[in-house]
Amino acid sequence: MANKTIDGHQYTIGWYVDDTMTAHKDPNVVKAEIAHIEEHFGEMSKSHGAKQRFLGINIEFLGDGTVMIDTNNYFREVIEDFEREGHVIVGTNVTPAAPNMFYTIRKNTPLSAKLTNVFRSTVAKPLWASQRSRLDLSFAVTVLCSRLNRATEGDWEKLWRLLGYIKGIVHMKRKLSAFNLHTMYT
Asked: Per-residue DSSP letters for 37-78?
């Protein structure tokens, strides 16, 4: 991310590999900056408007100084991918982690090679989203990441709990607002 002031207002550009997002109060500034970028790097595909998708994140600028963000489609894919492997998530959970999150004493039988691969790929997906739109997942995901090389049946249960929570919140969006430089509301 980078910011600069153009015509007295903040211009922001964010990029990740070959995806770029720009924002400014005046759409003509955005168009001029995109034209400048295209002079150096060639024509890009573009979309304009209050609703955008950037790196799997749905972003909607509501026009009142607030923005709505979600990774709901991404979470639906996480659940579908896990269930496609033959592991059906029944029910939902109200928290991403149980009180026994740190304990591995019970059910400490190592996972099979196949389940270990499913475990690793499944944990990686909420890890990405937890850093962008769902900070409430961070604790459970961090603990599960520490178990990637020695996952057990107990860790598998913790993953199921996390996925049950994700299944329950898959429709939720986060609304952010900042009305001054010192206070952000969620």
From this structure: HHHHH-------SSEEEETTEEEEE-SSSEEEEE-HHHHHHH
